Amino acid sequence: MRIAVLIPCHNEAPTVQKVVADFRHALPEAEVWVFDNASVDDTADLAAQAGARVRRVSAKGKGNVVRAMFRDVDADIYVMADGDDTYPAASARVLIQDVADGRADMVVGTRLESHDHASFRRFHGFGNRLVRGCIGALFGHPVRDVLSGYRVFSRRFVKSMPVLSRGFEIETEMTVFALSNGFVLSERTIEYGTRPDGSESKLNTYRDGMRVLKTILFLFKDMRPLLFFGVLSLLCVLAGLGFGAFVIHEFTQTGLVTHPSTAVLAVAFTLVGVVALATGLILDTVNRRSNEILRLITDQVLARDRSSE
Predict the structure, then answer these.
(1) pLDDT of 168-195, one tens digit each?
(2) Residue 225 and residue 140: Cα distance in Å, rounded?
(3) CA distance 155 to 229
(4) pTM for the whole structure
(5) CA distance 241 to 144
């Protein structure tokens, strides 16, 4: 099987050579790629010197880099790890096994069970647990580490996924895409390290955290439209019935409607609820047909690739 190691980097000159060397040692049969995301240091040159194939991505943001990696690299198994030397290359062989054996389409290296005290900045652990809880509640599948950047993918997953995110919310998008489209996701515990001196995290706790939560909400709307709009419809109808009950009670007691604005509000809430339900039904049908077409196209592309080999 062709294995590609994909390393997204932005200003990782202090660590990129070691990361490339570690993966070349752990997976000597693999081709190591470094995707340099508009670095202003010597990241690209140092990666090339270490033996990696280097591609430059001018559009800033990890999501843009992942889009380029999935588009430009051809392999059967894809290993993705950050270039900050916090993910152990020695664990790559274990992560690959589930995909190689056909037991999973995406394997996530989970960090939360085994890491140094200084591995996470303040609130990062809480943020990860919050995101994990949201995804578990909305998509019905518990995931131990949603935001891990150490992952292994099958070719089918990589060539099926339309990457929409631009920044660090890409890990959330990949997790949700797998859960929503019938891909098998598994997790393996890894030893998560700390950044060495001179290496700085590009993640902004609050800004990128809000982006991740917004991404979860929009992906839930896009991938579970019937449930999303169904809940909205139920809330609107209940509100309409609540206001309407007050108006009806008043009318039965006095024969008058002294609060016409309440009656209008009740009708408005009820109509919005009906429209929301209809919207959810239509979008759910469209979503199902789109997923069927996407899977058919992907299957045809992969079958053509296998026949050409």
Answers:
(1) 788 888 998 888 888 899 999 988 877 6
(2) 15
(3) 33
(4) 0.77
(5) 40
11 against 200, higher pLDDT: 11
- 8 A C-beta contact, residue 16 and residue 47: yes
Residue with structure tokens 């150490």? 150
Residues 109, 186: Cα–Cα separation, whole Å: 9
d(CA 193, CA 88): 8
3-state secondary structure 59-95: CCCHHHHHHHHHHHCCCCEEEECCCCCCCCHHHHHHH
Distances (CA, A) of 271 to 37, 264, 266: 48, 11, 9
Q: In 3D, which of 111, 145, 151 has the Cα closest to residue 131?
A: 145
**Tokens at residue 202, please?**
């590009």
Whole-number Cα distances in Å, 1 to 57, 74, 127, 151, 274: 27, 11, 37, 17, 52
Ramachandran sector of residue 56 (left: φ over 0; alpha: ψ -120 to 50; beta: rest): beta
Q: Pinpoint the alpha helices (H) of the chain.
A: 16-26, 43-49, 62-72, 92-100, 124-139, 155-160, 170-180, 205-223, 225-254, 260-308
With 80 as the cut, is the pLDDT of residue 2 above it?
yes
Q: Which amino acid does the sequence have at 106? A: M
What b-and-e string marks burial along 31-56, b requiring 16 or more CB atoms within 10 Å of the CB?
Answer: bbbbbbbebeebbbebbbebebebbe
Tokens in use for 30? 């693999």
Q: Quick check: 192 and 86 in contact, CB under 8 A?
A: yes
Q: What is the mean pLDDT of the chain?
A: 85
Cα distance between residue 218 and residue 61, in whole Å: 19
